[in-house]
Every structure is written in structure tokens, then in C-alpha cells.
Amino acid sequence: MEENKYRILVVDDEQDLCEILKFNLETEGYLVDTANSAEEVLNMNLLPYHLFLLDVMMEGMSGFALAKELKANQSTASIPIIFLTAKDTENDMVTGFNIGADDYISKPFSIREVMVRVRAVLRRTKSANTPNNTNTIEYKGLKLNANTKTVSVDGKDIAFTKTEYELLKLLLEAKGRVLSRQELIDKVWPSDVLVLDRTVDVNITRLRKKIGNYANNIVTRQGFGYYFDA
Fold first, then answer.
1. Deepest in the core among 13, 37, 84, 175, taking most CB within 10 A?
2. If we measure between CA atoms, which residue out of 106, 45, 108 comes closest to residue 76?
3. What are 151's strand-pairing partners?
């Protein structure tokens, strides 16, 4: 997909910042809409969007709360999210990634930094959605379809974020082989995003919860990393 076909929704209660981001993103060739509250977003048709840029600290519903709503809805769960926020502590970053964020940019930021991060997330999205020769990876009732980017557990489709999907795919493809946290970081997250080992652990915990009866198949090898025990 060409860049000018991507549609981005910028959500921030600072209207001036929305307009600045809109102008610069449109200059890069993206299609951009803005909203000034989470409540406004929940009344919109969100299916056309390929990326959400969400402020965290907004009046009313926060960006974190909005992201949880988006990830809980199967129709928007796979749309990537970048948080734009003045909150920059490690706990805040982990909270953002725990919800399912694809990136986290602290204010104040440079417009150039935002453009680079947006491009990286969309590039990864495009790569993740490129069909390959492996259609389905299965283990008993756990099935991952690499063409449709979907996961089903015992016949029930489960909503996965892109990060969760990519982690599960790597673990299933490497059945029985330990993957270090750094190897997972290198293969799942963009190279220009700072990712902590704890962020990997948080995503693995979320992944285990989603695969239900197969949670114990993802084994922690203390000091080394994780592997899928088949």
C-alpha cells in the first residue's frame, strides 16, 4: 500500500497540536482526521483507519481507557496504536505496551520523530499483512492463519494485537527452541523503538491468557527466554 493510501486518526484534546500533526502527516502523503476526545472517537466509524495516534492525558476518558476499548473490539483490535504523552515513566510505558500499543512517544517530541515512528509502525503493519507460503500453523486446537493474521483457540476466534500475534507466530514456528528476549525484541518490535525486557514479559503474560488451555505450552526458561513446548 502506498503511503498516501494510509488513513490516520489523531486524538488529542489540544486542538493546536492536532492541527500541527495533521498538517505534517498530510505533507508526508497520509490521509488524516482528528478528534479532540475519546468520547468523540467512540462515536466514529473507525474501520477505515490504519493507525491511531492517541494522547494519554485527556479530559474525560483517557487515552489508555480508549485504547482498551479499541483492543476489546474485534473490528479495531488489530489497528496499531501510538501513544503521544507527557507521561514518560517506565510504569507508564509498560502500561501502554500492556494495553497493546505499538509505540510510545513522550512529549515534547519533534515532528520528525513522530514521522519516523509512524512510518516504522505502518511499515511493520504492511509486512505483517503480506501473505506468505505458510497458511496455517497448528498445535492441537490452537490455530494461527498467516494469511488472514487470525488466531483461533479450540474453534473460537480470539482478538490479538499485532505484537501478540507476531510473538505467538515466532514461538510456534520455533517449537521446542528457546527464543531469547532480545531475539523476540529484534523480530517483533521496530528497531527504532526502545523496548524493555519487562515489556516482553508483559506481552507473554497477555498472550498466555488469550490462548487459554495452551498457556502452559509457552515455557519460561529462566535466564534464557521462552519456548513453545509441543
1. 84
2. 45
3. 144, 158
C-alpha cell at 173: 514456528
Cβ–Cβ < 8 Å for 218, 171: yes
Q: What is the pLDDT of residues 148-184, one digit of tens each?
A: 888 999 889 999 998 999 999 999 988 889 999 999 9
Beta carbons of 144 and 167 less than 8 angstroms apart: no
Beta 7-11 vs 51-55: how paired, if at all? parallel
Rounded to whole angstroms, how far apart are CA atoms 144 and 217?
A: 15
* Residues in Cβ contact with 221 at an 8 Å cutoff, skipping those fewer than 6 apart: 178, 227
Predicted TM-score of the model (pTM): 0.57
Q: Which residues contact 5 (CB under 8 A, 6 or more apart)?
A: 31
175, 230 Cβ separation under 8 angstroms: yes
DSSP 179: B
Collect all residues with Cβ–Cβ distance below 8 Å to 112 and sequence separation of at least 6. Answer: none
Q: What are φ and ψ of residue 43, in 5° steps?
A: -100, 5
| Distance spanning both ends of the chain, measured CA to CA | 37
Place of cell 483490535: 77
Contact 96, 137 (CB under 8 A): no
Give 105's contacts (C-beta < 8 A, 6+ positions apart). Answer: 82, 83, 84, 85, 113, 114, 117
Cα–Cα dist 207/211, whole Å: 6
